Amino acid sequence: MLVPVKWLEEYVTLSMDTKEFADQMTMSGSKVEEVRNWGENLEKLVIGKILSIQPHPNADKLVVTHLDIGEEKPLQIVTGATNIKEGDTVPVALEGTTLPNGVTIVGEDLRGEASQGMMCSHDELGITKNLIPESMKDGIWILDEKTPGSRFIDALPAVDQIIEFEITSNRPDCMSVIGIAREAAATVGETLKVPAITLEEAGTDWTDTASVRIDDPEGCRRYVARKVENIVIRQSPQWLQQRLMQAGVRPINNVVDVTNYVMLEMGQPLHAFDAAIVARQSIVVRRAKPDETTKTLDGTLRKLNDQMTLITDSEKVLGIAGVMGGENSEVTTETRAIILESACFNADRIRKTSQQLGLRTEASARFEKGQDPELSLMAANRACQLLEELEAGQVCPGVIDVYPQPATPRENTLRPHRVNALLGTDLKVSEMVEILHALEIKAHEADELIHITVPTFRDDLVQEADFIEEIGRIYGYDKIKATLMTGDIMVGGLSHRQKMEEVLKRTMSGLGCYEAATYSFVSPSGVDLIRLPEDSFKRDFVRLLNPLGDETSVMRTTLLPNMMEVLRRNVSRSVPAGSFYEIGQVFYGQLDEAKAVLPLEVKELVMGIYGEGNDFFVLKGMLIHLFKTLGLASPDFERESNHPTFHPGRCANIYVGDQLMGTLGEIHPLVAANYDMDDVRVFVAEINGDAVLAMAKIDPLYKPLPRYPAVVRDLAVVVDKMLSVQTIEILIRRQAGELLEDCRLFDVYQGAQVGENQKSVAYTLTFRHNERTLKDKEVNQCYDAVVSSLKKELNAVLRA
Amino acid sequence: MEKNLKQLEIEAREVLQAARDAKELENLRVKYLGKKGSLTELLRSMGSLPKEERPRMGQVANEVREAVEAAMNAARDRIGRLEMEARIARETIDITMPGKVFSQGTKHPLTQTLDELKEVFIGMGFTVAEGPEVETVVNNFDMLNAPANHPSREMTDTFYINEQVILRPQTSPVQVRVMKSTKPPIRIIAPGRCFRNDTPDATHSPMFNQLEGLVVDKGSTLGDLKGSLEIFARHLFGEHTQIKFRPHYFPFTEPSAEVDVTCFKCQGEGCSVCKGSGWIELLGAGMVHPNVLRNCGIDPETYSGWAFGMGIDRIAMQKYGIDDIRLLYENDLRFLSQF
């Protein structure tokens, strides 16, 4: 809401500078977004009257003009403007004047004719293009009759400050200058001065031969109509045009400008119909029929439905209520009489209509937030008063006011102790009442209660808490003392699961992985890129009804494609190596189709690594370390050759006990190609995060340090190349018995020194007894048992 | 004999003083003090002396032995020192060579920011509540007193799954879940992902993170809300931080306020971070609307409460000087590794 300060000052006295005022308004709840200066750097401009316009002797597109600027000798200006005529009054910039757009005027010779200044356009004087009246859009600013030679800024109110307020959706009453003035009065401690409305009226009462009927009482609560005759359509005076432009509205003509002015002033949207078009001067407010159409005054054919309210006469549609008038009934230069509508339409209906038509207007923006029906008549009269003052027409006696159920002010009570209890203040009842009065809320104390009558323009004040807020904000939140919470001591902290998630993240950091954060909504094509089969449950997406685009149209069912995108982005940006993880929700639609059933949300952990030094075993080692840190039993890895996302020879499922925890592996070459990473080896793990966190338990228990020395033996055997080391290790552990403390693979060799299709594997075996020093003999027995069963069961040959 | 002994002492001292390394020293020890060394040889010949001379000669011999041993020790110390010096000179390194590179990952800057926020509130007795990212319209709007025509319900603002299910545009439904399931006193924070129908640009992201807080207790006041947020702001931005409550409108709180903090960059002087105002808009807050309490089964006559909410992304951006929110979700390693 743009509010020119001088306009505001017509209704409330402000004895402080604008910045101070703006700050105070912000602190009482009308947030000031910005204070702008209107009409800067116009001091040197003067008013000129065009005395003559002659063709330029040497240029077809230029004319030579002479202007009276209040000096003895007329000023000569050469111009290319085409919208001027002799007798017009215009703003003139003399030599040496710098315009708001930074251009400095210099006297010059234009093809042999001297030009001693410039006639200015709106644009050149700092008015944005969308506010310039149509007739002067591409030409000189033609003013009303002014004294030549006077200063531009004295001749019209072109200098002001404009305050832009943010109006919250609960305060439609503040979408008007008077509404803001009311807040200002309460804030600065002044009284509101509302303009007195008096009308001359002339002619006969028009209501004898006219009528208004509301056939759609739900859509229209009140309809006030007045008639103005002998209309002369012309440009509005400059003061009015200035006001409108300052408030962000483009001047059109005197009648339309007056309706807009009153809307800005009081918050009541008005509409003027050309009375000649209204058949039998009878207006019917009704619902639209399904599939009815009408052309609005912007020239667009609108398709209507039965949830929209129309203004019609007995024969045709005149306009869409509260949104836009019809093209047929628009006020034109030919208009000789108007019917002025000031109505109260249903907020929900207007909102939906405006949405369905994709048509938002200043009127609809106000109606859809809720309108005070008590305002209709006052606003109609105010507009008539202005039309009289502008000599735009004669107001006919008589008002049609259809108002079947007049609004009654709401009564309410407020418990003063609740005010202080909720705000933490110590206000007296009289102070509370005083604040309410300042906001034009009637209030008095009786029986230890404050009895309140809420004005009809404050539909937002419904219950006690609402009044407490009013009192609090006008009293000043900054005056409320900051206190500490009372009540029982409460122990804060994280749940076990939350703590485990923190440990997980910390551990991942320690492992050199960076935490990624990707969108919860994804493209449905991600599951294609990772080659999930057609029947995969991860294709049963939870879909958005109104996504921003296909790329963010479904909730993710796996973090794997997200991780692939992260890796792709880093690879494509030439980051040579990277390790990432993300832990976050995936979403599975529930089988139950009942509408309010939420999807199942499961936490998933995904890891992805690539680049020098990274391979399958780095990733495997990370997982083992992570599980160990989180106190999980040591995981088992089982070869997985059928997962379509992974390299069939380099993929494993991870188990803790019987529970499948996830999968890790090198990405399948086809998937890598789908992500433009043909030349990069990428390793990814997808883990059930919920399962990990549920099993996590960090509960270290001290074990005494060994008091007796260990005996260490190395063992190297040659076995079949395809034999897994896990098979060997299981056998070693089984055969070595309880004395074996540790068994560690330290070398695998394939090559000339061992046979083809063979490999040599070497282990370090550590033996220890907790209660005594081991004898060589005992260790040898264990060792020999291992060697012989390796030979017997796995055909392993001891390497010399 | 005595002369021989003295002679030996003089000779030994001389050569020991000249000895250059441990090996030479060992040779000299063998030569003089060894089993077949000169001194031993001389002492062995003591048997041939007259009986009465033996004690005196024995004494002289001992003195000579001690003198030679002392010279030997002095030489050993001297040579040890020399060798140490030589070793140190030999082992001197170019300490300007690079250190070993260790690599540790980082938590996402949003996680780090959230961790800081959580720490402050946990210290004030708050626990951390969580809820689903996909929520019901009931929990997110109806229970929270959002008017039927509130703009946030529009499809232009909120992502819908169907008429009754949405992606939560705030973490407030977590408050509803907690109030419905917990008897006051309640003191929770609810961090999490939120979604709004915004096209991504430098300051907007369709997904972002929020942290909300809720306190419900007997006698909770707006003054408590101010006091608690003041403590929070000082923890987060420094001891001299001030806060400012501006009246505002939210459907779920009444009275409601927007809360500004003094700019942590310029301490309120005015700078580019705060666009010259000296203040940064940080939170929305207010007293829980009695309708909301009632909807969640809490009697507003017995209990009152306050709530607040803030955008973690925005705080992270201000804290780290990040000028484009999209960077947070790009996951470029060169970005992530800066935090």
Automatic annotation (TrEMBL), chain A:
Chain ranges of the FDX-ACB domain: 706-799
Family matches, as Pfam families: B3_4, B5, FDX-ACB, tRNA_bind, tRNA_synthFbeta
Cofactor annotation: Mg(2+)
Residue ranges of domain TRNA-binding in the record: 39-153
Keyword Lipid metabolism: no
Any GO CC annotation of this UniProt entry: phenylalanine-tRNA ligase complex
Keywords, ordered alphabetically: Aminoacyl-tRNA synthetase, ATP-binding, Cytoplasm, Ligase, Magnesium, Metal-binding, Nucleotide-binding, Protein biosynthesis, RNA-binding, tRNA-binding
Subcellular location: Cytoplasm
EC number: 6.1.1.20
CC cofactor note: Binds 2 magnesium ions per tetramer.
An annotated GO BP: phenylalanyl-tRNA aminoacylation
Subunit structure: Tetramer of two alpha and two beta subunits.
Similarity comment: family membership: Belongs to the phenylalanyl-tRNA synthetase beta subunit family. Type 1 subfamily.
PANTHER family, per database record: PHENYLALANINE--TRNA LIGASE BETA SUBUNIT, PHENYLALANYL-TRNA SYNTHETASE BETA CHAIN AND LEUCINE-RICH REPEAT-CONTAINING PROTEIN 47
Name of protein: Phenylalanine--tRNA ligase beta subunit
Species per Swiss-Prot/TrEMBL record: Anoxynatronum buryatiense
Protein encoded by which gene: pheT
UniProtKB/TrEMBL annotation, chain B:
Coiled coil: 65-92
Main location class: cytoplasm
Documented EC number(s): 6.1.1.20
Domain Aminoacyl-transfer RNA synthetases class-II family profile, residue spans: 117-317
Record Pfam families: Phe_tRNA-synt_N, tRNA-synt_2d
Gene Ontology CC annotation, any one: cytoplasm
Catalytic activity, reaction form: tRNA(Phe) + L-phenylalanine + ATP = L-phenylalanyl-tRNA(Phe) + AMP + diphosphate + H(+)
Signal peptide: none
InterPro entries, per database record: aa-tRNA-synth_II, aa-tRNA-synth_II/BPL/LPL, Phe-tRNA-synth_IIc_asu, Phe-tRNA_ligase_II_N, Phe_tRNA_ligase_alpha1_bac, Phenylalanyl-tRNA_Synthase, tRNA-bd_arm
GO biological process: phenylalanyl-tRNA aminoacylation
Requisite cofactors: Mg(2+)
Cofactor, free-text remark: Binds 2 magnesium ions per tetramer.
Subunit structure: Tetramer of two alpha and two beta subunits.
Family according to the record: Belongs to the class-II aminoacyl-tRNA synthetase family. Phe-tRNA synthetase alpha subunit type 1 subfamily.
HAMAP family: Phe_tRNA_synth_alpha1 (MF_00281)
Protein name: Phenylalanine--tRNA ligase alpha subunit
Organism placement in taxonomy: Bacteria, Bacillati, Bacillota, Clostridia, Eubacteriales
Gene that encodes the chain: pheS
